[in-house]
């Protein structure tokens, strides 16, 4: 229940996954929570993290992890602009824009082009077509 509150106390958020057949197919939900905090993030190079290289430090092996953690504690990586960049990346994966994108895709395939721009009422447009 209170686990989400702990991130505010992290200096660096880590995702030290073992790279194997299992982690090849995972998508860490905590990645977006970490990015939303604005804190630096270090992860092993799992496939789902690769597209976030611009906001997540990716490391393999102990020396790369050591370097990535040290860099994550730097002033440069903790500058307001870097924190904002990570938070912008997280916002792209917020539920509201994702649901709106899905609703627009479904509405488009159903021939419903009048989905409200704000996403408000999207549930009514889709319900009316059922």
Description:
The chain is mostly helical and 130 residues long. 42% of the residues lie in helices and 6% in strands. The protein contains 5 helices and 3 strands. It has helices at residues 30-37, 61-72, 80-91, 95-109, 122-129, and strands at residues 13-15, 41-43, 57-58. The chain has a 3-stranded parallel β-sheet, with helices on both faces.
The strand count comes to: 3
Main sheet overview = 3 strands, parallel
Quaternary structure annotation: single chain
Sheet with most strands: strand arrangement: 1-2-3
Order of helices and strands: EHEEHHHH
How far apart are the first and last residues' alpha carbons, in Å? 37 Å
Shape: globular
- Strand content range: 5-15%
Helix run count: 5
In short:
With 130 residues, the protein is mostly helical.
Quickly list its features.
6% strand; 42% helix; 3 strands; 130 residues; single chain; 5 helices; mainly alpha; globular; disordered C terminus
Provide the fold topology.
Layout: E1 13-15, H1 30-37, E2 41-43, E3 57-58, H2 61-72, H3 80-91, H4 95-109, H5 122-129
Parallel strand pairs: 1-2, 2-3
């Amino acid at each position: 229940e209170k686990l989400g509150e702990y991130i505010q106390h992290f200096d660096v958020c880590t995702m030290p996954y073992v790279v194997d057949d299992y982690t090849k197919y995972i998508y860490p939900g905590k990645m977006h929570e970490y990015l939303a905090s604005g804190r630096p993030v270090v992860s092993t190079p799992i496939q789902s993290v690769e597209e976030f290289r611009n906001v997540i430090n990716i490391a393999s092996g102990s020396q790369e992890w050591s370097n990535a953690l040290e860099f994550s504690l730097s002033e440069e990586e903790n500058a307001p602009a870097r924190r904002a960049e990570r938070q912008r990346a997280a916002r792209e994966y917020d539920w509201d824009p994702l649901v709106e994108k899905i609703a627009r895709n479904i509405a488009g395939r159903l021939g419903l082009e009048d989905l409200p721009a704000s996403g408000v009422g999207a549930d009514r447009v889709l319900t009316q077509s059922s």
